[in-house]
Task: inverse folding
């Protein structure tokens, strides 16, 4: 099936949907001024003590963050898929 993705591709997508600060799957992703997505709570905490990007080390031009709705939907699908996998493994 052309729409199926490999385990490597799925792993890559999961890594892209992880917060670069705490390395967990994003639940409330936001985009910061550096263009990267973070968990809202983590980047808010970071920006309270640093004006530098956690990804690049460059000066952040703003402390404003905006929701990343696309990443939120992808991460939710990944979480739902993990839950289904765990349930099917438990029933076998």
Result:
């Amino acid at each position: 099936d052309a729409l199926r993705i490999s385990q490597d591709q799925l792993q890559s997508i999961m890594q892209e949907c992880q917060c670069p600060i705490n390395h967990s799957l994003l639940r409330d992703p936001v985009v910061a001024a550096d263009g990267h997505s973070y968990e809202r709570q983590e980047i808010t905490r970071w920006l309270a003590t640093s004006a530098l990007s956690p990804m690049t080390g460059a000066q952040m031009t703003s402390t404003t963050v905006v929701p990343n709705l696309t990443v939120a939907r992808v991460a939710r699908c990944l979480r739902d898929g993990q839950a289904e996998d765990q349930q099917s493994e438990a029933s076998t």
